[in-house]
Specification:
The radius of gyration is 27 Å and the shape is globular. The protein contains 23 helices and 25 strands. The mean pLDDT is 95. By secondary structure, the protein is of the alpha/beta class. An eight-stranded parallel β-barrel has the order 11-12-15-19-22-23-24-25, surrounded by five helices. Strands 3-10-9-5-6 form a five-stranded mixed sheet. The chain has a five-stranded antiparallel sheet with strand order 16-18-17-20-21.
């Protein structure tokens, strides 16, 4: 790679080489074309040597063109900010004020000035950089700082973060356990073919009776209204709002029993189906919600109307943009295909006159979408209240997706915030040898900082709502994110984010929201990254199948070898449940879908047989088998499923050092199919559609459930 281009890539945070996390680690050299393409999307031309040199000069000059940066993110007790002034102002009067953005209280702060020796000349003016060390004690929070130089004032945002993330009291005391569930998969005699917020309340009550203190949930964010079959919870249209499919229709105040009389046969059908029929369930619920909305709007003087007005005011422009996007999408999809990028130019701009006129014309439909969020938030607040009522120490453990769908309200509402023509994904690793192209929008790191990280802060707060813990999906994205061009086969590479700032923002918000932070770090983890998370008291995510020696080829780690500050589970929604894993049905599935060759299949079966032996050995030497159901055979391929193995595995998992163990109902209830098979669409595999085989009403009487809870209690 030409030296000037490499220098520009290094300055911009574009990786020119990286190593994957495959079983046989491979290093990649990034072609010049990829670097040039990404540099351009970051705002720096790199088409030829002249453009590269100009971009290098522009980058170096950038910091010297403003006295203060837009935001400084610092740790409490170590508050340093830099300031740029003209050299002839070095003897000017200096002052510093800090206004707390929550309280509005402003006060002078004491500070020391330290010259850095750095200078830069623009035109005929020589600029110097100085370091301001604030010696006043500032509590954690956000401040507007005003720096006075002579008779001029310069402002910036100061975010003062704690040294570590918040930690729940129960985890300071010892270990606990709970469940990892997919809310949509909950089955009940009450719901309308998909798990809902009332089901979640019932499950919270079950947890309180069995001693579980935490419930891990899939992302709850709003999905595409017009195409309910696009059901991946990790590809939302906005991470700020909830998926209305989780509304319990019969719990809406405007609901009347006769509303379901004419659809009762349809309700029985969608309840009885093995898979969730999104294309039937969602329109069914929306049709009734439209009727209930009509009743809601019939009297504008009710207390509930005033609550709705307050909700709309609180969520303001973000809510309006979502509802406007959903309305536009619903109407335009009847004659235009390809998402919002296929719309007429004037409708691709949310601030255009055409969009404003549309908003006036379709005001009632827009208001309906706001009503959906109003009711979803109301029912979710009842879930939060149920957690408190039942005394769950951690409660909900929510999931923040790494990105947002490219065809989303977030991207439509704010084009400049996201990298244009690039999609987030992942390079090859041990679990996904072909790599992953998620097709998600990625923040532009420079625009994000210019906006004082406010879009990231809003998303953190939205997903910490009602949560005692938050899982940050692909937490490595706080440091670097693998992106590749949308419309070409050009290879991708990593772009860098300001990890120190991002971690400090996460820590600050975790304390403000009393929310435990967990980082999902399965995949290509940079050297030293885990140590940086640990220093911030961010818990890791530990998975039985990944806790192996020799990069997944060796023995299973012993319980005492597991990390303490971790949320541990047997698998994840992207992995085969225990029974499926045992029989190798996942291998057969991938081979049948032509995701692996015949040789790869045979090798996978051979390794799985070894892995089964290693698992049995781990359960044996740690005395994990239930006393009334000890291991009876070697269970070679062709023999039956080992009775009691799920109890033994849960005993093993419960004994690990990890402070939180999350059991999966799929393992307990002997499910043989995956919730999600990465790399496939609905035409190949019914991702995000599997209901649990046992209803909530029958769960506590199920013998497998009873025995597994007993095993967990005995070991944890």
């Amino acid at each position: 790679m030409e030296e000037n281009l490499k220098q520009l890539a290094d300055k911009l945070g574009i990786a020119t080489t990286f190593t994957d996390a495959g079983l046989v680690r491979q290093e990649y050299e990034i072609p010049d074309s990829t670097v040039r393409f990404i540099a351009d999307k970051l705002g720096y031309k790199a088409g030829n040597l002249g453009e590269i040199k100009k971009s290098l000069a522009d980058f170096d000059k950038r910091r010297w063109q403003t006295t203060l940066e837009n935001i400084y993110v610092v740790e409490q007790g170590n508050i340093h900010i830099d300031a740029v002034i003209a050299k002839d102002q070095e003897q000017s009067y200096f002052a510093l004020q800090a206004e707390n953005k929550d309280t509005g209280i402003s006060s002078a702060v004491t500070f020391e000035i330290h010259p850095t020796g750095e200078t830069y000349t623009i035109g005929k003016t020589i600029y110097v950089k100085m370091l301001l060390t604030i010696t006043s004690e500032l509590p954690i929070g956000y401040y507007k700082i005003t720096f006075t130089v002579g008779d001029k004032n310069y402002t910036a945002t100061l975010a003062v973060a704690p040294k570590e993330c918040y930690e729940n009291d129960i985890l300071k005391e010892g270990k606990t356990w709970g469940y990892a569930i997919q809310l949509y998969s909950l089955k009940s005699e009450h719901n309308w073919g998909v798990g809902d917020f009332s089901d979640l309340q019932r499950f919270i009550e079950i947890c309180s009776r069995c001693g579980a203190q935490v419930i891990g949930l899939n992302p709850l964010n709003v999905l595409v209204h017009t195409f309910p079959e696009n059901a991946s919870p990790y590809s939302s249209i906005s991470r700020l709002f909830l998926n209305p499919i989780y509304i319990d229709i019969e719990a809406v105040p405007e609901f009347k029993p006769e509303d379901k009389e004419e659809i009762k046969d349809k309700l029985e059908e969608v309840r009885a189906s093995e898979l969730i029929k999104y294309e039937e369930v969602y329109p069914l619920k929306i049709a009734v919600l439209e009727k209930l909305y009509g009743r809601f709007m019939a009297d504008l003087t009710t207390p509930r109307q005033r609550e709705f007005h307050d909700f709309v005011e609180t969520y303001g422009e973000s809510l309006h943009r979502l509802a406007l996007f959903q309305t536009l999408y619903d109407i335009k999809s009847t004659y235009r295909f390809g998402g919002w990028r296929s719309w007429e130019d004037e409708f691709q701009n949310p601030n255009s006159a055409a969009v404003r006129k549309f908003a006036q014309e379709y005001a009632d439909k827009i208001r309906f979408f706001k009503f959906l969020q109003f009711e979803a938030f109301r029912q979710f607040k009842q879930v939060e209240d149920k957690v408190k009522e039942c005394g769950l120490k951690i409660g909900l453990y929510r999931d923040l997706a790494v990105g947002v769908g490219k065809d989303s309200a977030e991207l439509w509402s704010d084009h400049d915030l996201f990298l244009k023509d690039l999609g987030a994904g992942a390079p090859p690793d041990a679990f996904f040898p072909a790599g992953q192209k998620w097709g998600l929008g990625a923040f532009n790191p420079y625009v994000l900082k210019e906006r004082c990280y406010e879009p990231f802060i809003k998303i953190l707060r939205a997903n910490m709502q009602g949560a005692g813990a938050l899982r940050i999906d692909h937490v490595m994205g706080l440091m670097r994110l693998y992106v590749s061009p949308d419309k070409s086969d050009e290879p991708g590479t990593y772009i860098m984010y300001n990890l120190k700032d991002m971690l400090n923002i996460v820590a600050l918000e975790s304390w403000r929201n009393k929310c435990q932070i967990v980082g999902e770090s399965i995949g290509n983890v940079p050297d030293g990254f885990i140590e940086q998370l640990e220093a911030k008291n961010i818990y890791s995510l530990s998975v039985l199948w990944a806790e192996r020696k020799d990069a997944g080829w060796g023995d299973f780690n012993a319980p005492w070898e597991y990390p303490s500050k971790a949320f541990m589970s047997v698998g994840t929604h992207d992995m085969a449940p225990l029974r499926m894993w045992w029989f190798g049905y996942d291998i057969a599935l991938m081979h049948n879908l032509q995701m692996m060759t015949e040789d790869e299949k045979n090798n996978a079966y051979h390794k799985r047989e070894q892995d089964r032996w290693k698992l049995l050995h781990a359960l044996d030497i740690n005395g994990c088998w239930p006393e009334d159901n000890l291991r009876k055979a070697d269970y070679l391929y062709g023999e039956s499923y080992p009775e009691g193995i799920e109890e033994a595995v849960h005993t093993f998992a419960s004994r690990t050092n990890s402070k939180v163990f999350l059991a999966q109902l799929e393992d307990i209830l002997h499910v043989e199919k995956m919730q999600n098979l990465p790399g496939t669409d609905i035409d190949k595999h019914p991702n995000w559609r599997r209901k649990l085989p046992v209803s909530l009403e029958n769960l506590e009487g199920d013998i497998a459930y009873i025995r597994n809870i007993k095993a967990i209690h005995k070991a944890r």
